[in-house]
Amino acid sequence: MTPVPDPAHRRGLLIILSSPSGAGKTTLARRLMAWDPTLRFSVSATTRPPRPGEVEGREYYFRDREGFMAMVERGQMLEHAEVFQHLYGSPAAPVEAAIGAGRDVLFDVDWQGGQQIRASALGKHTLSIFILPPSMRELERRLRQRGQDSAEVIAARMKKSRDEISHWPEYDYVLINDDLERTEDRLRTIVSAERLRISQQPHLVEAVRALNSEFEERA
Ligand SMILES: Nc1nc2c(ncn2[C@@H]2O[C@H](COP(=O)(O)OP(=O)(O)O)[C@@H](O)[C@H]2O)c(=O)[nH]1
Ligand SMILES: Nc1ncnc2c1ncn2[C@@H]1O[C@H](COP(=O)(O)OP(=O)(O)O)[C@@H](O)[C@H]1O
């Protein structure tokens, strides 16, 4: 059953997925999007060159440093950070439009992005989930098996992963991504439950008021 939130009744959630590179957040984000087509994915801007198969506007908006910083200076970024010697950032306009329409927005950002989104004006309605690999050995195996980065890049990312992992206490949930199916199932459970928080259901006041008026009529 695909949970289709009623945009008229729900307040959009900002769902933040973070993890060390290679832990599985892109894979899990894609699976969440397949599970619930009403979810909007926040496509980031980056100065990192595209990997084979990456498409402008799908995985990222690929910019040079000047173009990226122009977006920052124009106040078009909800957050941005330097990660692995490249700039990454979340354009604000698509996020504001989606949240305004009662849609949840999914972010694949590092711990710096997570901190900035939580501190932003939209930060009241965030759900943040940190994905851990089952082991460093498995993390390295996944980076190698993915075949998208050079040996040097993999070594640099493995070195940085300890620092990334140290931010796990800042998140609402932590999932160890050992079995992919089980992790995906847990992710769906978390999103489904968080959508039912009182803060995400502005129509509850009306619903209770209707119950009370019905009660008075019966009295
Ligand atoms: N702060 C921030 N981090 C981002 C953004 N987009 C991607 N990242 C992070 O940048 C890191 C590198 O991303 P990428 O080069 O796609 O490598 P991957 O993590 O192995 O897929 C990852 O840890 C992402 O979480 C963004 O818009 N903002
Ligand atoms: N639970 C898992 N078990 C085995 N391989 C996985 C698992 N989750 C992801 N992977 C694989 O690990 C590699 C890195 O996953 P990816 O989603 O690109 O990570 P990230 O976006 O965090 O860098 C990919 O080849 C992906 O298919």
UniProtKB/TrEMBL annotation:
Its main location: cytoplasm. ATP binds at S19, P20, S21, G22, A23, G24, K25, T26. This is Guanylate kinase. Its EC number is 2.7.4.8. InterPro entries: GK/Ca_channel_bsu, Guanylate_kin-like_dom, Guanylate_kinase, Guanylate_kinase_CS, P-loop_NTPase. GO terms for molecular function: ATP binding; GMP kinase activity. It comes from Palleronia aestuarii. SUPFAM superfamilies: P-loop containing nucleoside triphosphate hydrolases. It catalyses: GMP + ATP = GDP + ADP. The lineage of its organism: Bacteria, Pseudomonadati, Pseudomonadota, Alphaproteobacteria, Rhodobacterales. GO terms for cellular component: cytosol.
